[in-house]
Amino acid sequence: xxxxxxxxxxxxxxxxxxxxxxxxxxxxxxxxxxxxxxxxxxxxxxxxxxxxxxxxxxxxxxxxxxxxxxxxxxxxxxxxxxxxxxxxxxxxxxxxxxxxxxxxxxxxxxxxxxxxxxxxxxxxxxxxxxxxxxxxxxxxxxxxxxxxxxxxxxxxxxxxxxxxxxxxxxxxxxxxxxxxxxxxxxxxxxxxxxxxxxxxxxxxxxxxxxxxxxxxxxxxxxxxxxxxxxxxxxxxxxxxxxxxxxxxxxxxxxxxxxxxxxxxxxxxxxxxxxxxxxxxxxxxxxxxxxxxxxxxxxxxxxxxxxxxxxxxxxxxxxxxxxxxxxxxxxxxxxxxxxxxxxxxxxxxxxxxxxxxxxxxxxxxxxxxxxxxxxxxxxxxxxxxxxxxxxxxxxxxxxxxxxxxxxxxxxxxxxxxxxxxxxxxxxxxxxxxxxxxxxxxxxxxxxxxxxxxxxxxxxxxxxxxxxxxxxxxxxxxxxxxxxxxxxxxxxxxxxxxxxxxxxxxxxxxxxxxxxxxxxxxxxxxxxxxxxxxxxxxxxxxxxxxxxxxxxxxxxxxxxxxxxxxxxxxxxxxxxxxxxxxxxxxxxxxxxxxxxxxxxxxxxxxxxxxxxxxxxxxx
Length: 617
What we know:
Blueprint: E1 7-11, H1 21-37, E2 42-47, E3 59-61, E4 78-81, E5 95-100, H2 112-128, E6 131-134, H3 137-146, E7 154-156, E8 180-184, E9 206-210, H4 216-228, E10 235-239, H5 243-252, E11 255-258, H6 267-274, E12 279-282, H7 287-291, E13 296-298, H8 303-319, H9 323-330, H10 335-350, E14 370-376, H11 383-388, E15 395-400, H12 407-413, E16 417-420, H13 426-436, E17 441-444, E18 449-450, H14 453-463, E19 471-480, E20 483-484, E21 494-500, E22 504-506, E23 515-517, E24 521-523, E25 528-533, H15 536-557, H16 563-580, H17 588-615
Parallel strand pairs: 1-2, 1-4, 2-3, 4-5, 5-6, 6-7, 8-9, 8-11, 9-10, 11-12, 12-13, 14-15, 14-17, 15-16, 19-24, 19-25
Antiparallel strand pairs: 17-21, 18-25, 19-20, 19-21, 22-23
Helix pairs in contact: 1-10, 6-9, 15-17, 16-17
């Protein structure tokens, strides 16, 4: 008999090392999973015996033999390994989700044989995993470059950050005598803290470096650097600090510094940003992802350049009052968002094989405000009209794929909140955007779509009703140039664009992505307008882009090129659009559409063939 709720066991064994990033990752993720999702899943946390763990969370202690024979299949549906070198990999048919934080050991001076051995250990866990999760897009790229994922899904789930506040605390072990700069982390070479003393000459600042000291030689390197620049009396190495002390230093510092050259995510900078502090980062690994456009960056570690970046950054921060903008950016990284994404991953891995009793309707008292999301890439000609058509939304969020035209500038001038993110695929981009939204109700609008007044009124009426649907189909009326397409397969065009994010996500497809709704889906009566392409040249370029993405998806899934399939599928695609979907009733327009679709199908297989040749498969 199937269970009513899936039973998930989450490994938190690395909490045996307190005051580390993994310790806080395990602690905060466990808290958020249990607090926000225990109505959907039964959670058990697999911990090291004798280590602090919240008493209200269900937990089991690991046994010595678990490293050798970890077989829990009869008790749990999913095992979540939360560290890339975990020793606890389940046997049997239990689903296994595997989290990789970084491959930073590849960029150290470790012997090549040891690096190869560590990669092999991670590869063995990937081979067993049903899904891989990573904590930044940088880590995803690193994993896909150095390891074979066998086409398994690799999902980016950003860490959350919780800042514990102690406004009444005023008793740090070391109290600075002058304005100070602050950093915190495990004091190792990869954090690159030794470059920070060179910021102090010509200033009145103290530098406070907090964190545990596992490498005494590196500690001496920092002190030697301070002596070199004549600032040894202004560089303070506190050792580990309590949460109260960390808040005291971070909230009073003039700036937070984090020149690390090896980060999978980087929680401390986000903690500082949550307090509205100016943050100065290196450009290495994941830090530009975390700091975004609100951080300041050391492009290199030359003393003169670093001092210039610091002084100009502090001046910009004060002159332009950046505090609120920095806080808003940091608010995308919450443990509530992270837990929601992990639970979505759990459900996706289960793939409906269990009788999941997740809620099927929205509580009557839910927040009925809405965020309109507009994904963009070089849409300066469309973005203004798109934003105008959703100005009725409580928030307009533009997620931009690093446009090199005026898209971002126009969007910001019109009051939209803009987040830039490197494009990987359509599902990832839109799921990322959903997590950044301030409100639970989401309306997704492409930049070439418009919402007429009738549809706007229907959406607002739905939001303020007691309707129990969690997502809605919306019809689209499509145009190429000035010509409306009435047939050719577009006559029944519809998509889910209005939904509650607790129930819906995009399905992971690289292109032609669709919403997967875990609730009840309704239909709206009024359509939206879709001004697809200004010309057939633009249409063909878009189909070519889609063809490349679909070929990449096929390749990663292990699909093989077959010449006969390329021919048959291309011919059938023309026949389907022109004959079966009545494209001939669209006249010459229908003929050209069918021809372009057939050509795009041919290209998909051509790109797949090229990938196989390139990678030797």
